[in-house]
Design goal:
Blueprint (H helix, E strand, L loop, with lengths): L2 H9 L3 H22 L1 H10 L8 H13 L1 H37 L3 H29 L5 H22 L5 H20 L5 H6 L3 H11 L5 H14 L5 H8 L2 H18 L3 H14 L10 H16 L8 H27 L8 H19 L2 H6 L8 H29 L2 H22 L8 H10 L1
Subcellular location: Membrane
Protein name: Facilitated trehalose transporter Tret1
Keywords: Glycoprotein, Membrane, Transmembrane, Transmembrane helix
Length: 460
């Protein structure tokens, strides 16, 4: 090692943690592309401009098979992390997502798209399980939340890129972009060390010491190893039954239920609906100041801005404070959106309401990424002991997948039975309930090591 490179490593001892977060961000960017894919290309099937025909019912199933893939993705992700570690699962998950993009490239009929969308949903939910654990294991307490938000930002960036690129390129070219991103992720993550927590749990002491030093050049290796051994040993079990029994202990059951509730709130807060149907909502909202097809990009841009802004404060304030701030903004903007549709229903001239629609939808996107979209995944990486957290996260993310599916279908059902304004008002009231829930029950974990968090939780 040269003197200059040694000085660089000394000045930036945590640089490899940032590289790890960037590699995960590329993976989530590709996942975001698969989410953003829906808006332009489902519309192309509906309008008859797609490479091959599809009925209205088939287009609906293209949207829903993505959500259906999330449930098995949660199970496979949890099993994989338990036995192979977060790094290997991220790579394997990326390979499957690569296959999904290839299926779109070679597709010549609807079933190919079904398969691709199902695999995309599977990969997104598996990623939701493995990346919080991997980044939680390799990151220092002072920047853990920031690295998590950096990675999560990839999802928002990918969604907006899908909105922006989709209308101008073919499905096959779009999928080629996804392939390139996934290859970049695989190369970066392959070169990273395995998590020291995973290595210790598999009795690979020397490799774990090297991993600790790789991720923090200024670490006290023996102190870090002692903390890791303590964390791993505290929850060490042998059988699946042991893990279930331990998960049912009062402390773990309490925080497991809290996380399930946070994820359920997140999935039913209107995020999935607005991401999937922004253009349709803008059309029904009689948006004319800008094109309805531009509205997803506008909302997505504010979502990215909110996500990047949150990187600067997510580790400066308690998780509870960030959650409350985000849900308060979401509730107010949902109420404003409902008011827009109510005023349309009573005959107000749409030209006077353009500002209300654009602001409520755009600012909703910003607030969604400023806490509600990230806090549950930050807490997933922090709250559980090493031997049960994959099981706990599997359950939480399975609930997330199912509730996301229910949220999308529930929205379509409500559109047929009540005025659209009431849908947003009801959702706003529901998000306000989420605010109260978080204010009372979200634990404070900011700035603590994983071992310190377990010590605090045991005292409660």
């Amino acid at each position: 090692m040269t003197q200059s490179s040694g000085l660089l490593l000394s000045k930036y001892p945590l640089w490899l943690q940032w590289v790890g977060a960037f590699g995960v961000m590329l993976k989530l960017f590709a996942c975001g592309l698969s989410v953003g894919w829906a808006s332009p290309y489902l519309a192309s099937f509906t309008s008859g401009t797609a490479p091959f025909p599809a009925t209205t019912d088939e287009v609906s199933w293209m949207a829903s098979t993505y959500q259906l893939g999330r449930f098995p993705g949660a199970i496979l992700g949890a099993v994989g992390v338990q036995y192979f570690g977060g790094k290997i699962v991220i790579i394997g998950n990326a390979v499957v997502l690569l296959i999904s993009w290839i299926l779109v490239i070679v597709s010549n009929s609807v079933p190919w798209i079904y398969a691709a969308r199902f695999l995309s949903g599977l990969c997104v939910e598996a990623a939701n399980i493995c990346y919080p654990l991997y980044l939680g294991d390799i990151s220092s307490p002072s920047i853990r939340g920031t690295l998590m938000v950096l990675a999560i930002n990839g999802l928002s960036l990918g969604i907006v890129a899908g909105y922006a690129i989709g209308p101008y390129v073919s499905m096959r070219v779009f999928s080629g972009i996804g392939v390139a991103l996934i290859v970049g992720c695989i190369v970066i993550v392959t070169l990273l060390p395995q998590s020291p927590y995973y290595l210790v749990s598999n009795n690979k002491t020397k490799e774990a010491e090297n991993s600790v030093l790789s991720y923090n050049r200024k670490a006290d290796v023996q102190l870090e190893m002692d903390l890791i051994r303590k964390f791993v040993a505290r929850t060490e079990s042998i059988t699946f039954t042991d893990r279930l029994r331990e998960l049912n202990l009062p402390k773990n059951r309490k925080y497991g239920l809290i996380l399930i509730a946070l994820i359920f709130f997140m999935q039913t807060s209107g995020m999935n609906v607005l991401i999937t149907y922004t253009e349709s909502i803008a059309t029904r909202g009689m948006l004319s100041l800008i094109s309805p097809s531009t509205m997803p990009i506008t909302m997505g841009g504010l979502t990215i801005l909110g996500a990047w802004t949150s990187m600067y404060y997510v580790d400066k304030f308690e998780r509870k404070t960030v959650w409350v701030f985000s849900t308060a903004g979401l509730a107010l903007n949902l109420i404003a959106l409902g008011t827009h549709f109510y005023l349309l229903d009573v005959g107000v001239d749409p030209s006077y309401l353009q500002w209300l629609f654009i602001l409520s939808v755009s600012i909703y996107g910003a607030f969604s990424s400023m806490g509600m979209g990230s806090i549950p995944y930050i807490l997933l990486s922090e709250l559980f002991g090493s031997n049960i957290r994959t099981l706990a996260i599997c359950i939480c993310c399975s609930v997330g997948g199912l509730s996301g599916f229910v949220g999308i279908y529930g929205y379509q059902y409500l559109l047929e039975v009540i005025a659209e304004s009431y849908i947003y008002w009801i959702t706003g009231a529901w998000v306000f309930v989420a605010l109260i829930f978080g204010l009372v029950l979200v634990p404070n974990t900011k700035g603590k090591t994983l071992t310190e968090i377990q010590d605090v939780l045991l005292e409660n």
